[in-house]
Amino acid sequence: MSISRGSGAGATKTFNFKLVLLGESAVGKSSLVVRFVKDQFDDYRESTIGAAFFTQVVPVDDQTTVKFEIWDTAGQERYKSLAPMYYRNAQCAVVVFDITQEASFEKAKTWVKELQRQADPDIVIALVGNKNDLTSRRAVPAEEAQAYADEAGLLFQETSAKTGANVGDLFKAIAKKMPLDSQKQSQKGGRTSASGANRPSVDLSNGGASNAAGNCAC
């Protein structure tokens, strides 16, 4: 974790945290982060290749803000082996599934287990059921997902990248769960800078590039 401070009395502290998004292809990871960062939505967002990088600031209180340095990873199976590069040293993760696709929920559980086994032991994980604007096609009951999140010690939120429902609340909740004790973090030697030798290469063209035009990732 890195910290920046403004000048003068009552200056705001900004805490930087690395956040990674994981989940199956087309569950809406890219749409979710673009809604959060740019408040935009595209019905036919192209699939991410590798990963895309974003930043966004969330105010926690009058004197504290959290800056998320966000890695949006590709969901296709052929990119799965790259995921550890992106969740390595991450302080928080958003694992996304599509509420209309039971298989994507099962895949999300697999991602959670992998994070709990291989990522930072103190990582904050949020389980997100996206596309809650499609409740008539729901395949994953909210109660089932909430029960799993409670059992696994996760934050849980249902969202809609399309309508924007609960997207801001999701990232605000994550920000409030992050450790904002600078002394504790300096002792741990945490690092979240988006630059440096450990930063993996990434194709950022067209917000993450694509080889699957026309796939709805809403």
Automatic annotation (TrEMBL):
Major place of residence: membrane
Entry's Gene Ontology cellular component terms: endosome; plasma membrane
Compartments it resides in: Cell membrane
Family matches, as InterPro entries: P-loop_NTPase, Small_GTP-bd, Small_GTPase
GO process annotations (BP): protein transport; vesicle-mediated transport
SMART domains: RAB, RAN, RAS, RHO
Protein name: GTP-binding protein of the rab/ypt
Gene3D superfamilies in UniProt: P-loop containing nucleotide triphosphate hydrolases (3.40.50.300)
Region (Disordered): 179-218
